[in-house]
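Homework help board

Subject: predicted structure for assignment chain

Our instructor gave us this sequence and asked us to write out the predicted structure in token form, then describe one feature. I got the tokens but I'm not sure how to describe them. Can anyone check?
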Amino acid sequence: MLITVDIGNTNTAIGVFREESLIAQWRVSSDRDKTSDEYAVLLMNFLTMASVAKEGIRGMIISSVVPPLTPVFQQLCRRHFRFKPMVVGPGLKTGMPILYENPHEVGADRIVASVAAYVKYTRPVIICDFGTATTFDAVSGKGEYMGGAIAPGFKIAAEALYLRTAKLPHVEILKPEGIIGKTTVTSIQSGIYYGYIGLVTHIIQEMKKEMEGPVVVVSTGGFGEEVFNDIDIIDYYEPSLILDGLAFLFRKNS
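My token output:
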């Protein structure tokens, strides 16, 4: 069995694959102060809850956009599973040409998600990942990573309003009943939620103009399901897209 680890700025997603099937997954906070042993305790408890024997784990692959946490999980793997994990980065074969001016600038999670989406749909695809940042990634019909766009995420936008204004409160990101808010809280929720619906829709429409052929649009990430339900231009919601991509890359490089 294989453990996949996607270390994001806010949360870390962990999955367990038996061959090509995702049999369990969890999310924990990406805490830079936690040690490898502390994360190991969490992971071992998760494995126990899922009735997965530690001895059955034969591999681990890590994708990270938080450099201080990468060696923490590498140490966890070496100490508790007795093998060296695979890390997404230079030297790992993805099979996807990167058309960025500087390929090393592209986040590992964006590449993994792009590979996973192209492998699944084998046609031009746009991946919208709604995490700490909202990212849009375009893959050509030839399987080339073309580039994309990055915007602040939902929570960053809400926190910016709270921190940079004197009277606006900190609000939970929820879809309000209507776009015309009747309170300060629902007005902020309306502006952020429906504002992002417009942002996402427009970026997808403009990206499609620079791509050839029918384009599949996929959403993933923390707010991916909510946005998928409200935007007809998004074709599919893939909650485990990055974990699936990590499993694919592990098999490709093993």
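Reply (TA_rk): Your tokens look well-formed. For the description, you could write something like this. The first helix runs from residue 36 to 49. That's the kind of observation they're looking for.
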